[in-house]
Every structure is written in structure tokens, then in C-alpha cells.
């Protein structure tokens, strides 16, 4: 996905699921954040990850962002599979960890440029442009944005 932001705060993408699972890609104080959480895992293991870019983005500049979770990696040690959860900005890895969250079940709609009504009031709608959105290898050609977002 590519984005250009007019402000230092705002939700680029938000998804939620059946068991309180949620994922967000957002700007806070100019830094890109990626957060995945599965509360049903708290009794069994770590239930989420949070990544944040070290440097703040520049306003009115186009960025390419890629994020993934539960992506199988080819190496295996002692029959243990490795999975990556990652955030990349302009082709550079912000963070990559060997981490798998099971039982994630995201549902539609996927929110671009904001979240559902009732989302935490401290999280602002994104003001800027989003384009080249791909989820699970499928390009999204027709996406509904909040009123402050347009395609690049």
C-alpha cells in the first residue's frame, strides 16, 4: 500500500474479528505503527505484537508500506516451523520477528482511513491519500475511504 499523509496522526487501516482480534496500521506522532492483537490467546501465550518506526515520516511525501503476519518462512530447525510478522517502509524492514498468532479471524469490512464508529476517540481518521492496496495478494481496485482520504 502507498500512502501520503497531510498530518502526523491517523488510522490507515483497521480490521477486527470475532474474538476481539484486531489489527491496525496507523500514524502516531508521525511514526508508523503496526499492531495485531488476539485477546483469546492471553491465557496460552503472548497474544499480540506492536511495531513502531524509529523515524517520523515526512508530510506530503509518498511512502510504500508492507505488513504481514503468520507468513511461513522456508527454514526449519528440529522440525519447528518459523513464521514472520513484519513491517516494511519503503522496502526497508522496520521490524521482523519469528512470531505466530493462531486463531486470528478477521472479518469484513476492512476500514481504510479510519475505523468503525465507536473506535477509541484518541485515534484520529487519516487525512491524506492511499493507493495500491493489496491484501493477501489481491489488489483492491474499488475501496471506500473516509471522507478525508483519496487515492494517490
Automatic annotation (TrEMBL):
Annotated Laminin G domain residues: 1-152
InterPro entries reported for this sequence: ConA-like_dom_sf, Laminin_G
Highest taxon of source: Eukaryota
UniProt-listed SUPFAM superfamilies: Concanavalin A-like lectins/glucanases
Protein name: LAM_G_DOMAIN domain-containing protein
Organism: Macrostomum lignano
Taxonomic lineage from the root: Eukaryota, Metazoa, Spiralia, Lophotrochozoa, Platyhelminthes
